Amino acid sequence: MAILGGNMSDSENSGADKGGVWEGEATPTDAEASSGGLKQRFSSAWQKMEGPAQKVEARYLSALRYCMLAGATLLLVGATIYLAIGLFKQIGSSEITPEPVTIAVSDIAPSPSEEQPAAEAAADGEYKGPDKDLRARTLAVYRASFAKFERKGEAAKDEAVIDAVWPEERYAAFEQLPASDIVDSLGTPFEGAADLREHSITLAGKSVAEAGMSKALQSYRDAKKVRVCRDVTRQRKREVSYWNSNSTSCYMWYTYPYGCSDTRTVSEPYTDTVCEMRFPDDLESPAEAMGTAVENYLMVAARKIDTAGYDAEEKRSEILASKVEGRAQISDAGKLFLAFLGVMFLYLLVVMERHHRALNRLIKEPPSD
Predict the structure, then answer these.
(1) Which of 59, 262, 273, 360 sits between 20 and 30 A of 283, alpha carbons compared?
(2) Which residues, other chains included, contact 122 with Cβ-Cβ below 8 Å and sequence gap of 6+?
(3) Which helix (H) or strand (E) holds 260?
(4) Peptide bond before 257: cis, by omega within 30 degrees of 0?
(5) End-to-end CA distance of the chain, in Å?
(6) How many CB atoms lie within 10 A of CB 344?
(7) DSSP letter at 67?
(8) CA–CA–CA angle 278, 280, 283 (5° rounding)
(9) What is the pTM of this model?
(10) What is the pLDDT of residues 6-52, one digit of tens each?
(11) What DSSP element (H or E) covers 219?
């Protein structure tokens, strides 16, 4: 039996060696064998590609992280700069006070090449004229600076000088000037119209030394009379004859055509040429020149005050525009900061993904003992 058992065992083994199949074992088909070969080749190719792919992916993620960090840094720097500029533009008040103005001697001296328009100023109320102190000061300045330019034989009366320098409109116009906006050469503001009138008289006296004023006064003083002829229209009378139907002073007045011849006096115009020796009309007397200097003081003061107001308004407009621009920059800074937070969030996602992949590799490939 042992021999038989051994024989059987050998025959079974030989049958298995010859390709025999044990009872109950599944025999693989050709299709299954071919599919398994494809899977094995694909798996082998994937394993060969996985290493380079992981390196490319790692480099891409690394480059992406650096780009995100650079972008986030630029956004943060931009937000900081915009915020700083915007806050800086909010500093300071937007209320601008016009700068005080100063009237100089050269401002009121007439210029030969420039005509000065008349001032537009007037005040309501009864004209009282200059007070005693202003009259005395005006006459003193005139006698000291302007009287020497009078023509030979001239001697302006006090009232004529006062009337030439201080007519009603000019005197009242000083009330319209804001005295506190005008300062003297030392920077001290004036207190009222009386101080401004006093200052204008002082500058008028000093203006005689200016080239324009000196030339005008010398031209007046040295002017010669010239023959001036002009045509004038006059009236003359003469007698003319006419038929008076109501007259009865002639023979046969009662017959047709009734009446008599009569005469009457008529007036008729005629043109005559009149010549005379006189000074040129376009020259100002010393009193008138002094009044012109005071008038120029009014105009220059009003113009400078208006200019200072315009400049102040322009500065205020620039400050308000800067503040509005600053608020817009602060808003832009907030937007850049939100963009910075968004980039950092994406950066964190990329970093988490990188660490997640690293953990997966450690789990799949535990360190060997």
Answers:
(1) 273
(2) 169, 172, 173
(3) strand 260-278
(4) yes
(5) 53
(6) 16
(7) H
(8) 135
(9) 0.56
(10) 444 444 444 444 444 444 444 555 555 566 666 676 666 666 666 67
(11) helix 211-221
